[in-house]
Amino acid sequence: MKAVRFAALCVLPAVVLLSPSPALAQSASPPPAAPTPPPAPPVLEPGQHFVIDPVMDGMFTIGGGSIAALLGLVLSSGEIRPTQPGPTSNLLPIDRGTVTQTIDPHAGTYSTIGLFTAIGFAVLDPFLSAERHGWDAFLVDAVLYAETIAQIELLTDITKIAVRRPRPIDYLNCSTAAANASCSTDLQLSFFSGHASTIAAIGATATYLAFARDRHSARPWITLAVATALTSFVSYERVRAGQHFPTDVIAGSLAGATVGVIVPHLHHKDEAPSVWVGVMPAPGASGGSLTLSGEF
Questions:
Q1: By CB neighbour count within 10 A (0-12 exposed, 13-18 middle, 19+ buried), where does 260 fall?
Q2: What does the pLDDT average to over 223-242?
Q3: How confident is the model at residue 44 (pLDDT cuts 50, 70, 90)?
């Protein structure tokens, strides 16, 4: 059987070559075209460090900010009834001193000033970037700050509703069932601190941008030091105001720093990507080809 197949393969080319028919010669398929090299990765302009996507970033910013705003309205309506604080012995050792401290009446004001200072910097910094690096940097920074704030606010509100931890001041004002009935929803939103998370997120984004653009200057380290100091100061004042436990501000700072680094990092394109996908039409055909290329 193998011999017959081999003989057929040998005879068929000979018949084709010896045939004088011009029609048969014309029907022969043309030689295959040379393969087209895969597309090159996108090339960034000099000094371009970040890339934004209007659709993706718009959805994350507008969608996240809108949901956070709606959650804020729900929390302010009072429809979520607060729960009565439990015994202080259930608290972690690091948190127990918060419910017996003397509340500082000015600490809440100090923490709010710190929060608006950070937000003001997030508004001002894109203009400073425009002066240093051009208006492209202004657009990128404005989008990154807006997306960072929207996402950390959304995460903070979802966590507060899910946990519903009584604030330290609850243990003074809502320690009985009768008093608890008159307490607002806000007193059950201790974990985690929104002040700490927002300031840490803004500070982390500012630090990331500074290191990406001016890594060889003192600016990134100054930004990191100021952001850390402001987050620590506001966190301390939130505890002194009786609004949060130490674990609340620690968790808020960590969550904010995480979001503040992830958002600009997902947009950081300082170098061409190591893996990219290319689509090209096939020559002489109605189809195309999908190419996955990269450097490993």
A1: buried
A2: 97
A3: low
Residue 242 backbone phi and psi in degrees, to 5 = 75, 15
pTM (two decimals)? 0.75
Nearest CA-CA partner of 118 in 13, 44, 227 = 227
Strand positions, DSSP E, 103-219: none
CA 104, 110, 112, 115 torsion-angle sign: negative
Helical (H) or strand (E) element with 34: none
Helix or strand run (H / E) with residue 164: none
Q: Is 168 exposed, middle or buried (0-12, 13-18, 19+ CB in 10 A)?
A: buried
Residue 60 · residue 150 · CB < 8 Å: yes
Would you state the structure tokens that stand for residue 248, as one six-digit string?
A: 């609340």
How would you class 108 by CB atoms within 10 Å of its CB: exposed for 0-12, middle for 13-18, buried for 19 or more? Answer: middle
Alpha-carbon distance of 190 to 176, in angstroms, equals 19
Helical packing angle, 107-133 and 219-240, nearest 10°: 160
Beta bridge partners of 293: 276
Phi/psi for 237 (5° steps) reads: -70, -30
Q: Which value, in Å, is the radius of gyration of the alpha carbons in the chain?
A: 31
% of the chain beyond a pLDDT of 70: 72
Task: For the chain, give the number of residues.
Answer: 296
- What pLDDT, in 10s, does the model give residues 124-140? 999 999 998 888 899 99
pLDDT tens-digit series, residues 153-206: 999 999 999 999 999 988 877 765 555 555 777 788 899 999 999 999 999 999
